[in-house]
Amino acid sequence: MTRVKVCGITSVNDAVLSAEAGADALGFIFAPVSRRLVSPAVARQAGLSVGPGPARVGVFMNQALDEVLRTAEAARVSAVQVHGPVSSLYVQAISGYYPVLRVLRPADLAAEADVWTDVPGVTLMLDAPEPGGGIPLDWAALKAAFPSGAWLAGGLGPANVAEAIRHLRPAGVDAVSRLEAQAGVKDPAAVQAFIRAAKTA
Ligand SMILES: O=C(O)c1ccccc1NCC(=O)[C@H](O)[C@H](O)COP(=O)(O)O
């Protein structure tokens, strides 16, 4: 069954409603550019409020390695998601501490996808060039190059996630924009419908 990550959690309430709806992973964004920025303290509290079931993923973009590791430790996340044009050594260093979701854009696939094939602890995620921007990828065009075992993000929501899964059969799906009532605040009905649609696709 496709795993589901609900990203951009900024409160205990949204963590609990996402976990109760069946989310396999909750994303906490620590990239300062994000409108869904959350503090490590709130992320830690939200993670504690849902127990050990869902993975707690700290999301970072172009941040120094020591900042990533310190923040991940303070927030008590169980995995780290890495966006941006960082080196493979940087990703490998993080994977020594946490399972890593390495995010690539379709344009990066040719150069970087093979680097991570069969590397323990590193899983690929395909996302749109603007993270959190709500723009879907061209699933049909991606089909031939989509890496086995990779996750899919980019403009997914209740209305289109089943179609995306049918095209690419990702290991997991991830979304934020289309699950919100406003930036950083979840729409409970959208979260529930998204998870139901992904799990039954
Ligand atoms: O969502 C953000 O604001 C964000 C900012 C900076 C780095 C990452 C960010 N989000 C990461 C995610 O995992 C999103 O869920 C993913 O990009 C999909 O977003 P959307 O297209 O809005 O569903």
TrEMBL record:
EC annotation from Swiss-Prot or TrEMBL: 5.3.1.24
EC top class, as a word: isomerase
Gene Ontology biological-process annotations: L-tryptophan biosynthetic process
Entry-linked Gene3D superfamilies: Aldolase class I
Catalysed reactions, as listed in the record: N-(5-phospho-beta-D-ribosyl)anthranilate = 1-(2-carboxyphenylamino)-1-deoxy-D-ribulose 5-phosphate
InterPro entries to which the protein is assigned, alphabetical: Aldolase_TIM, PRAI_dom, RibuloseP-bd_barrel, TrpF_fam
Alphabetical list of SUPFAM superfamilies matching this protein: Ribulose-phoshate binding barrel
Presence of the UniProt keyword Amino-acid biosynthesis in the record: yes
Keywords, sorted A to Z: Amino-acid biosynthesis, Aromatic amino acid biosynthesis, Isomerase, Tryptophan biosynthesis
Keyword DNA-binding carried by entry: no
Associated pathway: Amino-acid biosynthesis; L-tryptophan biosynthesis; L-tryptophan from chorismate: step 3/5
Protein name: N-(5'-phosphoribosyl)anthranilate isomerase
Record organism: Deinococcus ficus
Every N-(5'phosphoribosyl) anthranilate isomerase (PRAI) domain range: 4-196
Name of a matching Pfam family: PRAI
Family recorded in the similarity comment: Belongs to the TrpF family.
One Gene Ontology term of the molecular function aspect: phosphoribosylanthranilate isomerase activity
